[in-house]
Structure formats: structure tokens, C-alpha cells
């Protein structure tokens, strides 16, 4: 995918963030836009930390793509758990070679998970699966991190 195409969709998600009143609406619209417009983004979803859950638990929020059996993920499980607990973006070029991968779809070949921060604390993450190996280049990583930052800012302004 060309840098100009990423830039075009980058501008669209920025406009969504400015125009939509709530973080929930932003996450729903963003998941839909990324799933529809980014060729290799075959599953796009947000997992949010459940307030007060013990043990800490990620809960599936807005998503686009096939249903997943993983609607609740403990922080110590999977690539999603690794990203949320470390506060670091995780890019896996080949999920079959990563023992942390929680299989959702036999078609998934690569994955990126980017934490969402509110006031410096992880509150959730943006998770994207691709049916293509090594689908997430540094340009994609920067773009997905931008999307996660927009959601974090919207959550901050919503008083979370």
C-alpha cells in the first residue's frame, strides 16, 4: 500500500476524531474505516481494560471482521495481553512462529497490537489481524499508533 494511501486514510481518521462526539463512536467508525479501506486489515478491533477486574481483563469492544472466540483476554495471555501489560506496540510478522498467539482465525498470518493510553496509563488497545504475512511495515505501525493516540485523546477529553 502506498504512503499516499496511508496518508489519505490517516487524514480521514483524524477527521473522524474531530467530528465524532464520543470515544465509543470513534472506535466503531475507526474499526469500520480501517477494515473497509486498508486492504490487508482483515480484522480490526479494540480491547479495553475492564475497570476493577481481578485479574486484569481485556474485553472486546468495537470491531469489524469475523466473530472471535476471544471476547475476554487476561493480561497475561496472548499478543494482546503482551501489548497491554508492556505498554509497547507488538508486531508479529508470522503468528505461527509466536507462541503467544491466541488463534482466532486459521487465515490470520500477521498481527499488530497497539496500546491505547489515557493520561499515560494503558486503558486498552487496537488489535489488527491480517491474512498476509508481514503485513505491518513501519509505515503501518506509525499509522496504527496514530489511530490509537486519537482514541486515547478522545477518552481523555471524555473525562475518563
Mind sketching the topology for me?
Blueprint: H1 3-19, H2 23-37, E1 43-49, E2 57-64, E3 72-74, H3 78-86, E4 90-92, E5 110-118, E6 121-130, H4 138-157
Antiparallel strand pairs: 1-2, 1-6, 2-3, 4-5, 5-6
Helix pairs in contact: 1-2, 1-4, 2-4
Main traits of this protein?
4 helices, 6-stranded antiparallel sheet, 38% helix, 160 residues, alpha+beta, Beta-Lactamase
What does this entry look like structurally?
There is one protein chain. The protein is of the alpha+beta class. The protein has a single domain (3-157), classed as 2-Layer Sandwich (Beta-Lactamase). The protein contains 4 helices and 6 strands; from the N terminus they run ααβββαβββα. The protein has a 6-stranded antiparallel β-sheet with strand order 3-2-1-6-5-4, with helices on both faces. Helix 2 (23-37) runs antiparallel to helix 4. The longest helix is centred in the last third of the chain and has 20 residues, at 138-157. The termini are far apart. The mean pLDDT is 92.
Amino acid at each position: 500500500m502506498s504512503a499516499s494511501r496511508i496518508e489519505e486514510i490517516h487524514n480521514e481518521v483524524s477527521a473522524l476524531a474531530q467530528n465524532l462526539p464520543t470515544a465509543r463512536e470513534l472506535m466503531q467508525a475507526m474499526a469500520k474505516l480501517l477494515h473497509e479501506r486498508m486492504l490487508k486489515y482483515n480484522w480490526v478491533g479494540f480491547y479495553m481494560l475492564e475497570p476493577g477486574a481481578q485479574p486484569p481483563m481485556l474485553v472486546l469492544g468495537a470491531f469489524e471482521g469475523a466473530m472471535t472466540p476471544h471476547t475476554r483476554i487476561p493480561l497475561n495471555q496472548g499478543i494482546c495481553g503482551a501489548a497491554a501489560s508492556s505498554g509497547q506496540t507488538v508486531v508479529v510478522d508470522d503468528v505461527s512462529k509466536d507462541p503467544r498467539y491466541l488463534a482466532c482465525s486459521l487465515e490470520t498470518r500477521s498481527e499488530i497490537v497497539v496500546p491505547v493510553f489515557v493520561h499515560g496509563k494503558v486503558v486498552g488497545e487496537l488489535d489488527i489481524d491480517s491474512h498476509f504475512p508481514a503485513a505491518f511495515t513501519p509505515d503501518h505501525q506509525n499509522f496504527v499508533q496514530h489511530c490509537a493516540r486519537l482514541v486515547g485523546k478522545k477518552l481523555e477529553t471524555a473525562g475518563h
